[in-house]
Design brief:
Blueprint (H helix, E strand, L loop, with lengths): L6 H18 L8 H17 L9 H4 L3 E3 L4 E12 L5 E10 L6 E3 L4 E9 L11 H4 L2 E7 L5 E8 L6 E3 L6 E2 L4 E5 L3 E8 L3 E2 L6 E2 L5 E4 L24
Antiparallel strand pairs: 1-14, 2-3, 2-13, 3-11, 4-10, 5-6, 5-9, 6-7, 7-11, 8-10, 12-14
Helix pairs in contact: 1-2
């Protein structure tokens, strides 16, 4: 299964590969095989990059007890934030995941919830693991309110190579834990910010799988949020949708 966002690029890759293979036989001697090999390798990488395997969220996520990784990759940061100003509007805990070009790049919702914050921010293209990438790079910022009332903010962040952020949700949409919501093409980073009351279960260096790996546990007695949604919450998505 392939991500729909990759159909156009896959189609172009197939056509280019066929064109290269068809014309390569006009070259003399063994040189004809070099462009064929390169075209085949490019097509294989394109298909591999846009793969979209099915994922099965754990029952604890469906029961609203945990927060899942929204992306495949390596945990590069676990930290406490004195104050998250965009959506949580309170102290928070942050987990950042780096996606290499070899990881699955389909992004999934970390929990059940209703989208209350949707912001696309143009920006720079620092390497995704740079400490300032989450503040300076092109990114989407989505906030959902969990059924418990807890607010969760997650960011798709473009990297040095990634130049295309895509997401298909906006304010008012409902998401379920593990549901596909977008993709960042060709290397990127995902940040998840959660209230300080959660128990983070991962540490830097851990490998996580979107929609399946647990990154935090939600306290049973988590307080319901009562503050208003920021005025900037309703904004255009990255696709102009």
């Amino acid at each position: 299964m392939f991500a729909p966002e990759g159909y156009g690029i896959i189609g172009v890759s197939v056509l280019v590969s066929l064109l290269v293979a068809g014309t390569a036989f006009l070259l003399p001697g063994p040189w004809k095989w070099l462009p064929i090999i390169l075209a085949t390798a490019t097509l294989a990488f394109t298909l591999y990059f846009f793969r979209d395997p099915d994922r099965v969220p754990p029952q604890s996520a469906l029961d609203g007890k945990v927060i899942l990784a929204p992306a495949d990759g390596k945990v590069v940061l676990v930290d406490s934030v004195d104050h998250e100003p965009l959506y949580i509007d309170a102290p928070a805990k942050q987990v950042s995941i780096f996606l290499s070009p070899l990881n699955v790049h389909v992004n999934r919702s970390p929990a059940d919830g209703v989208v209350e914050f949707d912001q696309y921010v143009p920006g720079d293209y620092l390497v995704a693991w740079h400490p300032k990438a989450s503040e300076k790079n092109e990114r989407s910022q989505l906030g959902i309110r969990h059924p418990s009332g807890m607010r969760i903010l997650f960011k798709q962040i473009a990297g040095k190579v990634a130049r295309r952020i895509v997401y298909h949700v906006t304010v008012g949409d409902s998401l379920t834990a593990g549901q596909r919501f977008g993709i960042v093409k060709f290397g990127s980073r995902m940040d998840v910010l959660m209230p300080a009351s959660v128990e983070v279960t991962v540490r830097p260096g851990d490998r996580v799988t979107a929609g399946e790996s647990i990154i935090a546990r939600i306290p049973v007695d988590v307080p319901r949020a009562t503050n208003d949604v920021p005025d900037s919450s309703i904004m255009m998505g990255a696709d102009g949708e």
